[in-house]
Specification:
This protein has 551 residues and is α/β, with parallel strands linked by helices. It is 27% helix and 13% strand. It is built from 15 helices and 18 strands. Strands 9-8-7-3-2-1-11-10 form an eight-stranded parallel β-sheet. Strand 5 and strand 6 form a beta hairpin.
């Protein structure tokens, strides 16, 4: 079940909008759809092919909108369905397609179906839509297992009648029971609803966790669970039954002309099993690249792995360096790297480091930005599609020193403050160097913006040819031209290099990345774009710099 090989998304550049932090039109401090629509000309000038819109559904914001009250509505604080339609129309008129987030692993605890499950009681059909289990012990007051939720604390929540419900994340996010056909049919209705409103594709949150099997008696302990690899034998990660679920989604996508597409979020260990999601849906995120750091050896290994997995499945590679869940890569690359072959050292290590502000060595801001620009240029030259996160085109850093009382991420509270959470990459964008919220909106911002944001503002960078924003604009324009050039290949050929240097060719298009600190010779060819200044005679590539050439 492989979809058309020649579709637009295979080499698209997709820009993620976290709507509450992108642009605020009504001045209430929260970004909205009207604000996003006002920035469509900016997105067109940037040169992206598509937008991925993070959740805009009604929500109590227990997890930044990923606790959904109603999958077929718009949060009134963000806009209306008519305003959503107007945003779709504006994007399409600018030649930009739209992905929206779909959150199928869990609903919010305010969702009508969950409220009905609570009211109906044990053994009811309503409860079968979620994962309720009886408690243990003589009074059934103990949870079914000692499992820990991903956001901390127990993974089971009591409801007061001897039963507990399972939540992989926060207690406000009860997990759906995907073995129930009513759950499957309701989500197909949701997918068709947004496709009918012009949505071109979907980003699937927690895509590997939908199929669950809690039939073992007893269920494994937390220690036993930790030893089970993701895959067919795991109770809830990457089970084979999930293929049947997504085959149903593919059939729904194929009802449309052109067929809709999806990209699966897969936070799993490196595994060729991930490619099967892309084979059915179109794409899957390969976050291995995000975790490779600024290390030539690890980056090459990840690129080779991802290209081999996607080639075997006939799907398209995806590349990403930042999103709403991780420390911004301009900051990550300014922190000491993990000296290990284990690329999955973890983003939380970076957040813990940032929480200890003042500890040595501190963030190297200049090096972080140099490396971010260089690896981004390398990423944009790779075959496949690239996903950008709002603000990375400005070189934005993580806002690590938010006051505790301003933090909104449940990870912060549920870890007792040991993990500062993800708010630092979700601070509203600076559009101008002044004003009450640096141009984000006429009022304030729902997360405090630091004073240094003014130097990163769009209006400041637009007038600076050397700015990160103008680098992204040049790179995306050149990328589009190069992909249309005869002879440019969908494959890459690695070129011989020294340590700390990566170079590959896609026909006449050559990309060289110098991850070291000393200059290396520049190959012959026409320089298309470079991530930093080259030497005066343009004979070498400085350290922590990437360059594109036409040979």
């Amino acid at each position: 079940m492989t979809i058309d090989q020649g579709t637009w998304w295979r080499d698209a550049v997709v820009y993620q909008i976290y709507p509450r932090s992108f642009a605020d039109a009504n001045g209430d401090g929260v970004g909205d759809l009207v604000g996003a629509r006002s920035r469509v000309p900016y997105l067109a000038a940037l040169g992206v092919d598509a937008v991925w819109l993070s959740p805009f559904y009604p929500s109590a914001l227990a997890d930044g909108g990923y606790d959904v009250d109603d999958y077929r509505a718009v949060d009134p604080r963000i806009g209306t369905l008519d305003q959503f339609d107007a945003l779709v129309a504006a994007l399409h008129a600018a030649g930009i397609r739209l992905f929206v987030d779909i959150v199928p692993n869990h609903s919010s605890n305010r969702h009508a179906a969950f409220q009905a499950a609570l009211s109906a009681g044990p053994g009811s059909p309503e409860r079968d839509r979620y994962l309720f289990r009886p408690g243990l012990g003589p009074d059934r007051a103990l949870p079914p297992t000692d499992w820990t939720a991903n956001f901390g604390g127990p993974a089971w929540e009591p409801v007061g009648d001897g039963e507990f419900y399972f939540h992989l994340f926060a207690p406000e996010q009860p997990d759906w029971n995907w073995a129930n056909p009513l759950v499957r049919e309701d989500f197909l209705t949701t997918l068709r609803f947004w496709a009918d409103h012009g949505v071109d594709g979907f980003r699937i949150d927690v895509a590997a966790a939908l199929a669950k099997d809690f039939s073992a008696d007893p269920l494994p302990s937390a220690a036993e669970l930790a030893a089970i690899p993701f895959g067919p034998t795991h109770p809830f990660y990457d089970r084979d039954e999930i293929d049947e679920i997504y085959a149903g989604w593919r059939a729904a996508f194929d009802e449309y002309d052109p067929p809709r597409v999806a990209v699966a979020e897969l936070w799993a260990e490196p595994s060729p099993r991930k490619a099967r999601y892309a084979k059915i849906l179109g794409q899957a995120f390969f976050f291995d690249f995000l975790h490779a750091g600024f290390d030539a050896r690890r980056v090459r290994r990840v690129v080779d792995d991802v290209l081999s997995w996607t080639a075997a499945s006939g799907s398209a590679p995806t590349w990403v360096l930042s999103n709403h869940d991780v420390v911004r890569h301009a900051t990550r690359f300014g922190l000491p790297d993990v000296d290990s072959d284990d690329i999955w050292a973890g983003d939380r290590r970076d957040r813990r480091w940032l929480a200890a502000r003042g500890a040595e060595p501190a963030e190297d801001v200049e090096a972080g930005l140099r490396r971010a620009r260089a690896l981004t240029l390398f990423m944009l030259a790779l075959p496949g599609s690239s996903y950008l996160y709002q603000g990375e085109e400005l070189g934005l850093r993580e806002v690590a020193d938010l006051p505790d009382n301003a933090r909104q991420d449940p990870i912060f509270a549920r870890s007792g403050g040991r993990d500062i959470g993800r708010d630092g990459c979700r601070v509203p964008l600076p559009w101008t160097p002044g004003g009450p919220s640096f141009g984000f909106g006429p009022g304030g911002a729902h997360l405090p913006q630091p004073a240094w944001f003014k130097t990163y503002a769009v209006a400041v960078q637009e007038s600076d040819p050397a700015s990160t924003l103008n680098l992204y604009r040049r790179a995306l324009a050149a990328r589009r031209d190069l992909l249309a050039r005869p002879g440019v290949s969908n494959d890459l050929t690695w070129l011989p290099t020294d340590d700390h240097v990566l170079a590959f060719a896609r026909g006449p298009w050559t990309c060289l990345l110098n991850t070291g600190t000393t200059p290396v010779p520049l190959p012959e060819g026409e320089i298309i774009v470079a991530s930093g200044d080259l030497d005066d005679d343009q004979s070498s590539v400085p350290g922590e710099t990437a360059v594109w050439l036409l040979t």
